[in-house]
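Possible regression after last week's pipeline update?

I re-ran a chain I had predicted before the update to compare outputs. Posting the input and the new output here so someone can diff against the archived version. Not blocking, just want to make sure nothing changed silently.
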Amino acid sequence: MKTTVAKAPFAEKNPTEIEKHGDVRIDNYFWMRLSDEQKLSEVNDLQTQKVVDYLEAENDYYETVTADTKIFQEDLFEEMKSRIKEEDASVPYKSNGYFYITRYEIGKQYPIYSRKKENLQASEEILFDVNELANGFDYYQLGGLNVSPDNKLAVFATDTVSRRQYFLRIKNLETGEIYKDIIENTTGGSVWANDNKTIFYTKKDPVTLRSIKIFRHVLGTPASEDVEVFHEKDETFGTYVTKSKSKKYIIIGSYSTVSTEAQYLEADNPTGKFTVLQPRERDLEYNVSHFGDSFYLLTNKDKSTNFKLMKTPVNNTSKENWVDVIPHREDTLLEDFSIFKDYLVLEERNNGLSKIRIKRWDNSEDYYLPFKEETYSANVYANPDFDTDVIRYSYNSFTTPNSVIDFNMKSQQKDIKKEQEVLGGKFKKENYISKRVWATARDGKKVAISLVYHKNTKLNSETPLLQYAYGSYGYTIPDSFSSTRLSLLDRGFVYALAHIRGSEYLGRDWYEDGKMLNKKNTFYDFIDCSKFLIENNYTSSNHLYAMGGSAGGLLMGAIINLNPELYNGIIAAVPFVDVVSTMIDESIPLTTGEYDEWGNPNDKRYYDYIKSYSPYDNVEAKAYPNMLVTTGYHDSQVQYWEPAKWVAKLRELKTDDNILIMHTNMEAGHGGASGRFDALKETAKDYTFLLSLENKVDPIN
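New output (post-update):
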C-alpha cells in the first residue's frame, strides 16, 4: 500500500461548542452529523451533499491507497469463498409437525427457507427464497420468520436500509399470497396468539430506535387500528414480546442493563390483560420460562452475581414466593437453561469454559457433557420440542469446524448430524495449534488469551499476531472456528483472542469490573495482554496488530491513545469513539439505555470519567499506528459520523506517515453487507490490509 500516491481528503474545520457541567468542548467536525431524514432524502441539501462528498472522497482515497493490493484482495476473496460449500443446507429441525430447513444454492448470496411435512422424504415447500426478494436492493435482510400455530401463515420481517427498523408482512403459506398488511418500524420480532389471527409485535421509537411499545394486530384489519397493549415509558428500558416454549403464555419483557420485568398473558386469550410477574427493581434481573404449574427464573436475586435458577407458582409469582432450583455458585456462571419434559439442561461457564449440564427432574441423573479441548465453544440450540430425550447442541473450537450434534440424554449417545465442511482439500485440523495462556494485568488479575496458529509458524519477535477483543455488555466472544481466518493462519499469523474485563468470561464480576467507573480496566487488560505477548516472544510491536468492532472499536481508539507504540496496525470496525457527545445526546439511537453500561454523563462524575477515555476527545499530536477504519452510512448502533470525525481529527493531529484509511459502505449499516459473498469481500479488505503491511502474500509451507 502506498500513501505517497494520493493526497488524503481534507475535512473542513467548523468549530462547534458543546457545553456540559461548565466544561466546553470544541468539536471541529460536528458538521458531519446528518439526520435520518437527510440521509434518506432523494433531494440532498447542501450539508448532506457536503457530508456525502467527504465520505466518498475518503472512499476514493481508500481505493487509491489500496490500488496495488486489489488483485491480492480479489485472490483472497476467492480463496475464502473456495472453502465454503456454496450448495449447503442446515440440519433440519422439527417444529409442530414440520421439518424446517435453511439452504443455499451455488452462486446465490441469500438463503432459501423451506419445510417438509412430517418426514424428510416429503416434498419441499419453499417458504421464502430471499434471493428473489432481495432482487433490486443494495441491502436486504429477512428475519423474524414466525409460523402460525396451524402452520398456514407466516409473519416475516424485512430491512432494506440496514437500520434494524423492520417492517412486518404476512404470507399465506397455502396460497403463496403475501397480504397487504404492512406494519412499519418494528424490531422484527412477532408472536402469534393461539387463535392463528392475532399477532403481538414491538414498535421502535422512530428517532431513538428504542423498542418502546407492544401492539396487538388482527389479520385483515389495518395497522392503524392495532391496539397498544404496553408502552415502556422509562427511557432507560427497552421492551420485547415472546412466547413460552410451552406455547401457553405470551410474555412481554422489559429490560435495562441492570433490571428486568416480565408480564404474562395466556396465549388462548389474546385480548386479555397482561399480569406483571414481579415488578421491576433496580439490580434485580430475571428471565422467564414456563413448565407445568410454575414459572422458572434465571435470576440474580439475593445478590446472586453469577445467577441461579428459581421457580415460583404460576398463580403466585412475586419474588417472596421464589425458591431455589439451582443455587448460586461463586465459581460458576449460569448463562442459560432449557426445559424438557424429563430433563433440565443448564448452560454454565466455569474458569472461562462453556459447560452443558444434564439433570433429570427426578434427580436420578446429573452430569456434564465431556469436552476435551483446551479452548472451545459449545451452545445448546433452541430445541423447540418439549417431549423429547434428545437435545441439539453445537460444538467447535479454533481448530475444529462447527458440528451440530443430537445428544440422547437417556442413552447418553451422541449423533453428529453435520460437521462444517472446509472445501479445497488443504485444511487439516492437525496442522493448527490452539492453546490458552494467562497474562497478569497491572492490578494482578489473570486475563486469559486464547491462541491459534499454524504448526509451521515459528513464534518469535518477527511473527505477525492479530489480537482481537470486544470487552463490553458482558458479551463473551467464543473460541470458535473460522474458515476465513485460515487465510491469516496459513500465512504465518497468530490469532489471539483476549478475554478482557467487560465480558463474562470469568463470571459476572468480570463484567462488572469492566464497565461504568471501571471501564478503563477493559483497555488496560488489552494493553497488558499485548505486553505479555511481546515479552513472551510471541511477536513484537513491529508485528502486533489489533482489531475490534463497535464497542470493540472504542477499545481500539482507547488503546492507541494510551499506547500507540505497541501496535503496527489497527482495524477499527464501526467504532464507538465519540463517547461523550453520544452519551449526552438523548436523541441519538440507543443512548439512554446505555447509561448503566457507560454511566450517565448528566452526572459530572461519569461525564469526567467518560471524557478521560473517549477516543475522539483524547486524540493528540503524536504518532499513531497504521489504521483501517470501516463504517456504514446507515448504521443505527454507531452513527457513521463517529468514525468519520475521528479519522478527520487523527489526520489533523497525527505526526507520523503511517497509513490512515477509512471505508464507508454507503448501502449498509452496523452489520455490514447482507449477502454472504459481499460479507466475505469485506473480510478480504480487512485481511488484505494486515497481510500487505506484513508482505505476507504467499501461504507458509
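Follow-up from reviewer: compared with the archived run. Residues 93 and 99 are 5 Å apart (CA to CA). Marking as no regression found.
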